[in-house]
């Protein structure tokens, strides 16, 4: 796989993005990549405050305000973390990016997709991923896995099954629409199997 | 003056907006208006957290991220505070609104004005003020007055004279461009004189 690419990982709750990014990062490092692992929201020192605000505000935060907060976090993240790393030729693996905003705020919360695309473009300064891995998992299975990991349910996980179904379908539609950029990987029975499929989708093994 | 209007107050630091909004609100209440006084950033319960994040983050916050944070605050504010008040026929006096974003983030920090207009429109759901009072004051005089009021200088007030000059000129250009919506009131020697001019500009006395 070419070095210095910007690769994003997308998918519903409990799809295993964090685990698989970590494993892929280890693998790529062995292959000589200089790897940066980062995530949205929260990939900058400042973004810790954003993340707390976003995930802990309970139901007082309106969807449109939430959308702008995610974009604030993104602007900071792209300028401060992603672009500098890419300029140095590093491979950037990012846990959630613009597609999550379209899936969660658009398909999930019902905000206008054209407006989200506009905000995504402005906040990211039009930086698009070279490749996007969509880790797909049936919603109930994913939520069960997400719950197992945390004691506390954050706002997103309380949003209900129908919401998460819309999010998943949103991701799948995006992957269809931009099939050149996306690789869709279904969650397998074991982490090892899924990780192998991710590597195969990237043409590495 | 017609009841139930949305009136915004704009102007550089130390232009006396807070004082004059308070005085005008008292006056309008006596005239039978039901008045809501609010401000950006910070006109919702949740927005307290936004305001703290915006004003206290020091220099780590990048201009583009700052812009999106202001818009997040605005979305919450318009939906939760301003629109409900206007629907009840109340007169809304708001300390800063979309013009401040154009003056501070556009003219001041140099972000793209077209993009700011787009974000302003989306965040405000295209809600425009019926009238905007621009309280104008020479920058050095304004900063001196702003400093007198607070012990702590926040991030905006540390930004330097040239920044605040650009902001002031930005406001004046906006007032020229949208002269039907704007009333420009120069700060006078006394609060009473300025307040009288504000009332005159609104056709009330």
How would you describe the overall organization of this protein?
The structure is a homodimer of 205-residue chains. By secondary structure, chain A is an alpha/beta fold. Chain A is built from eight helices and five strands; from the N terminus they run βαβααβααβααβα. The first copy, chain A, has helices at 17-30, 47-56, 63-87, 98-108, 113-123, 139-149, 161-177, 191-201, and strands at 6-10, 35-39, 91-95, 131-136, 182-186. Chain A has a five-stranded parallel β-sheet, sandwiched between helices. In chain A, α1 packs across α8, α2 packs antiparallel against α3 and α3 runs parallel beside α5. The longest helix of chain A is centred in the middle third of the chain and has 25 residues, at 63-87. Chain A starts with 5 loop residues before the first strand and ends with a helix. The model of chain A has no long low-confidence stretch (mean pLDDT 91). The A-B interface holds A 45-46, 49-50, 53, 57, 60-62, 64-69, 71-76, 79-80, 115, 118-119, 122-123, 125 and B 45-46, 49-50, 53, 57, 60-62, 64-69, 71-76, 79-80, 115, 118-119, 122-123, 125.
């Amino acid at each position: 796989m070419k070095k210095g690419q910007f690769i994003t990982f997308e998918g519903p709750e409990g799809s295993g993005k964090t685990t698989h990014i970590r494993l892929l990062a280890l693998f790529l490092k062995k292959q000589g990549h200089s790897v940066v692992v980062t995530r949205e929201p929260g990939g900058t020192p400042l973004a810790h405050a954003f993340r707390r605000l976003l995930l802990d505000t309970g139901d007082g935060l309106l969807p449109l305000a939430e959308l702008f907060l995610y974009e604030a976090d993104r602007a900071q993240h792209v300028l401060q973390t992603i672009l500098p790393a890419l300029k140095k030729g590093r491979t950037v693996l990012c846990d959630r990016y613009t597609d999550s905003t379209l899936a969660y705020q658009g398909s999930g919360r019902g905000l206008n997709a054209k407006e989200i695309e506009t905000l995504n473009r402005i906040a990211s300064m039009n930086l698009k991923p070279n490749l996007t891995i969509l880790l797909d998992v049936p919603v109930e299975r994913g939520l069960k896995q997400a719950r197992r990991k945390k004691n506390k349910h954050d706002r997103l996980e309380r949003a209900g099954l129908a919401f998460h179904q819309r999010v998943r379908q949103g991701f799948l539609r995006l992957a269809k629409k931009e099939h050149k950029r996306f690789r869709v990987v279904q969650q397998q029975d074991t982490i090892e199997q899924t990780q192998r499929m991710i590597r195969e989708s990237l043409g590495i093994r």
